[in-house]
Amino acid sequence: MPRVALATYDPGPRPGKDRDLPLLVRELRAAGANAVAAPWDDPDTDWGGFDLVVIRSTWDYSWRAGEFVAWAQKTAAATRLANPAEVVRWNTDKRYLGDLAAAGVPVVATRYLAPGDAPDLPVDHEYVIKPASGAGARYAARYRPDGHDTALRHLARLHEEGLTAMVQPYLAGIDVSGERALQFFGGRFLHASRKGAVLAPGTAYDADKVAHPDLVPWSPAPAELAVAEGALAAVPEAAELLYARADIVDGQDGRPVLMELELVEPNLFLGLHPGSVAVVRDAILAAAA
Fold first, then answer.
1. Using one digit for the tens of pLDDT, what is the confidence trace for 182-196?
2. How many CB atoms lie within 10 A of CB 214?
3. Whether residue 91 has a cis bond before it, omega within 30° of 0
């Protein structure tokens, strides 16, 4: 009976946002595994007592990235962790996009402004500011050139909290064709979904946002799959990945580019793709064997 832990977050008094989590626990138990879900920062959990720890919905890690990476490294030293701790360390800082671009992967053009850097912002096109360690569009906002003063305040807030900011052009194609999430699990393509634009003009960076609006199933084009697979091939220790999600958008020339490669805690959207549940369950069981 394999012992499997699904690492999540502590939602406190509110219901948890990971709708896939109870489903996966049930499926794993029904298949004979001793499966539990536990918050990653629970001091009473003995992670070394499991055959496999799968990072699932640790959705509060981004403001505590250093603490989270340390937990991943400690857990990986005690048992098998999916994804591997070094991949987690690399992927929690979105400066990994520069590594992928250097490897020839088409990515959204990105500049990074660390605390102390000059606040050099675009003056001739729409752009997005977001933290290099972030999730769920937290502290992300879209600006027109005439919103320069507000953008500077946003940038200053990120820097006050010790965060590096990312500055990217806003790709207008997102408003038309949305953002496509291509999921991989157990080393193969699993399913894809498309969501609408998350960032509306004028929405404050610290406002709550719907992370996955208008989510629907999607059949990816060959060019989208090629971008996703090229990104995965460029990941350090990519052969050890249990899961991955590649977020694809249309670039300024209409061709697909990588917005983000999520290797830490991607939402799987299993409620939208019930046929994928058995594939995910079996891949977890195989990794725990």
1. 999 999 999 999 999
2. 10
3. no
